[in-house]
Amino acid sequence: MSHHLVEVRDLHFAYPDGTDALKGVSFRITHGESVALIGANGAGKSTLLLHLNGYLTPTRGEIRIGETPLVRATAAAVRRAVGMVFQDPDDQLFMPTVFEDVAFGPLNAGLPAAEVEQRVASALERVGMAHLRDRPPYKLSAGEKRAVAIATVLAMAPDILVMDEPSSHLDPRGRRRLIELLKSFQHTKIIATHDLELVVELCSRVIVLDDGKVVAEGPTVDLLNDEALMLAHGLERPHSLWHQHPH
Amino acid sequence: MNLGQWIEIGRMDELGRLDTPVHRLDARAKVITTLGFIVVVMSFPRYDVSALMPFFIYPFVLIAQGRIPPGYILRKILLAAPFALVIGMFNPLLDHQTVARIGGWDISGGWLSFASIMLRFVLTVSAALALIACTGIHRLGAGLERMCVPRVFVVQLLFLYRYLFVVADEGARMMRSLELRSSGPQSLRLRVYGSLVGHLLLRSMNRADRVYRAMVARGFSSVGGSASGGDGEIRGLHRDSFRWTDWAFTGGWTAFFVLARMWNLADALGRMLAGGGS
Q: Where are chain B's structural domains?
C-alpha cells in the first residue's frame, strides 16, 4: 500500500460565510518529495492543509492520497496516512502527560497496549524527547512542545507529514534542531510556512499560493530567486540566496 | 499568561498522578463511596449540625492518605463558597424560631440551618475535590464509563475539564492586555467587560474547534460508525481492576456512613467522655 502520493485536482472551497478560500488548486506531490506551500497571509495555505486529511470537504474538485480518493468513507484511513502537525502545539497537546498525548493516536487506531508503548517510546526517542514522557505538556518550552507535537504524529506511523508553520514561536536553536530533525525524515513532506530560509534548506520544490490559486510552482531556488514573483505575492527573496555562490 | 493561575489549575493533574494507596484504588470504588457520602450528608434534616461532624473524617482521610496539600483544596472550596453563601444567607433572616440554647445564647433555626448548609457544602465539595485529586480526571472518566455512565456524558465531562484550562488561559491573556492599556479610574467600564466576555467566548470556541481538529486528525471521532473510524472514546492504557482493597474501601466507608447517619456519633462520643469523666 503506497500512500505517499498526494494529488489535488481543481480544488474549490468556500467557507459558510461565503468567503472563497480556494479557487481551483491543483498539484501533485510524489513519493519522498519535500514541498513548501508559501504565500501571503490569507492566501489559503491553512485551508488547503485542512483538506489534505479530510477535515474540510471541498465544494468542488478532488484529492487523492496514494490511490485512494479522499471521501468521507476513506477519511479514517487517510488520517492514518497523513500526519498533520498544527501551527499551535497547544491545540495539539491536550492530554495530561506527554506519554498519553503521544499514545492518543495509536490508541484510537485500536493498537494493542504493548505496541502503543513501543510506538510512543520510539516516537519520543526519534524527536529526542524521551526524558519528558511523564511531564504535563503545558509546562514544556515552545521547542519541546513542537517536538512532542511531531512525536504525536510520528507515533501514528504516517507516510506523509503535513506541517503548518513548523518554525513559528521557536528560538534560533529550537528552529535549527527542528530543521535537522525534519531533514532526517524520509516521509513525503508538505510544509506551509512564511519561513523562507527554512524552505531553502528543507524543500526541493515550492508551490506559491495567492488568493486561493496556485500562481507558481517549481524548484525552490529558481522560484525564490525570482524577486519580482516573490514581491508580487507578498513574499521576498530569502537573504541566503543573495550570497549563494556555486562552489 | 497568568502563570500562577495556570499552574494552580494544572496542579489537579499532577496530584492525580501521585502514587499512594488511595490513588491506587479503583476509580469506581472511590466514585461509589463518594457518591454514597454525598447522598448521606445531604439526607440529614436541616437543623443537624453536630451529627455532620464525624463525616469530616472521610475527606480528611482521602486528603491525608492521598498526600494532597490541604491548602489547595481549601482555596478551591473558598472559590466556590459564594454560591453556598447565597443559598444559605436568607435562612437567618427568615427563620427566627429558637431551636437551641448554647451557653445562655438563643440559637435561631435560621442560623442553625445556615451552619448546616455551609457544613454540607464544605463536606461535599471537599470530598468531590479530593476524589478528583486522588484519581485524576481521565481515570475518573474511564471509571464512570465502566459504571455504565453514557459515553456522551463522560466525554462532556472530560472536555469541560480540559477546556477549563483553555478558557482560563485566554481570559488571563485578555485581562493582561486590558490592564496594560488601562490607566486611570475611568478605564474599566462595564461595557468593556461585556465586550471582553463576548470575545472570550468567541476565542474559546475557536480554540475548541482547533483542539477538536487536532483530535480528529489523530483518529478521534465523536460520532459512531466504522466509516469515521472512531467511537467517541478517549482511551487510556491502564485499566483499573477491582481488588479486595477496593471492596474493603467501599464497604468500610459505607458502613461508617450508615452508622453515622443512624446515630449521632459526635453526641455519643461527647456523652461517653462526659460519662467517663464524672
A: 1-149+241-268, 150-222
Q: Which three cell numbers stand for residue B146?
A: 465502566
Q: Name the superfamily (CATH) of residues A6-242.
A: P-loop containing nucleotide triphosphate hydrolases (3.40.50.300)
H-helix or E-strand containing B43?
none
Contact A86, A149 (CB under 8 A): yes
Residue A185, all three cell numbers:
525524515
Chain A residues with CB within 8 Å of chain B CB: 50, 53, 55, 72-73, 75-77, 79-80, 83-84, 86, 88, 91-92, 94-97, 100, 103-105, 107-109, 113, 116-117, 134, 136, 138-139, 152-153, 156
Angle formed at CA B175 by CA B174 and CA B176, multiple of 5 degrees: 90
Per the CB < 8 A criterion, the answer to whether A52 and A242 are in contact is: no
ipTM of the complex: 0.80
Task: Give the nearest partner residue to A86 out of B138, B214, B220, using CB atoms.
Answer: B214
- Taking the domains of chain A in order of start, what are their residue ranges? 6-242
One pLDDT digit (tens) per residue for chain A, 247 residues: 455 789 999 999 999 888 899 999 999 999 989 999 999 998 999 999 999 988 899 999 999 998 889 988 888 888 888 999 998 888 888 787 899 889 988 988 888 989 999 999 999 999 999 999 888 887 888 899 999 999 999 999 999 999 999 998 889 998 999 999 999 998 999 999 999 999 999 999 999 999 999 999 999 999 999 999 999 999 999 888 887 655 5
Q: What pTM value is reported for the model?
A: 0.74
